Amino acid sequence: RLFAVFAVMLSFVLVTVLLCACFYSSSATVGLDFAQLQASCKVLREKTFYLKYKFQELKDENEKIAYRVRNLRQYVNDIESYYRIENLEILGVPKRKHEDLIGILRNISCALGLPFDDSQVSAIWRKHRASSDNYYKKTETNSIIVRFVSRKTRNKFIKRARQKIVIYSKSCLPQLPESEIYINEHLTNAKKSLIKAAKLLEEENKIPYAWLKDGQLYVRKTPDGKAIKIKSHHDLELLSSVNTKVQR
C-alpha cells in the first residue's frame, strides 16, 4: 500500500513538472510572438508616417502645378484677347452662298445709324462654330467676325448696338429669313465661359452686377462697391465663397 501511495505521489510530481515545462515553453513562444508583433507594428508605423509625408509632398506639388497651369491658361487667354481687341462678333445673320459680308456689315451699320467705309475693315469672315462653343445659344448660324482697323471704330459699333433694342436680318439683306441679330465683342471661349458663370452668380443674387468692358469682366460685391476685375474662374470662386447674398 505504501508503494502504491508513493507511486501516485511520484506520478503527481512528474505531471506537475511536465505541466510547468509546457507552461514555460508556451510563455516563451508567446513572448517571442509578442516581440515579433511589436516589431511589425513599429515597421507599419514607420511606413504609415512615410506614406503620409509623401502624400503631403505630392499634394503640395500638385497645388503648385495647378497654380502654374492656371497662370499659363490666363496668359494664353490674355494674348488671345489682346489679338481680338479690334474684333466684333455678329450673330444671327443667316448664311447664304456667295454672300457679301462687307455688304451685310454696311447694311448693319446703316441700321445702327453709323457712317461706314470699307477702309475701316481690316478683315471679315464667317466663324467656324465648334461644338463646345455654346455660350451664345440664340442662333445656330455661324457668326461673322469683323476685324476693324481701330478699336475706336469697333467700340462705336458695340456702343450703338447696346443702345438699339433689336436689329433684324432683313436690315442686312431683304432676301434673308427674318431673325434677330446680336453684336458683341469677339471673346475667347474661356472668357465666354467666365461671363456665363458670372451671370449665373448674378441670377442667384450672389453678386449684384457683372459687366463686360473691352474684353474684361468686372463685378461688384455690393451695389455701390468698387468694380473688381475678374480674370479666371478661380477669382469667381473666391469671390462667391466670401460673398453672401446681396440686396439689389
From TrEMBL:
Gene3D superfamilies: L1 transposable element, RRM domain. InterPro entries: FP_C (IPR057251). The keyword Magnesium does not apply. The keyword Ion transport does not apply. Residues 1-28 form the signal peptide. It holds the Pfam family Baculo_FP_2nd. It comes from the Eukaryota. Keywords: Signal. This is FP protein C-terminal domain-containing protein. Residues 188-238 form the FP protein C-terminal domain.
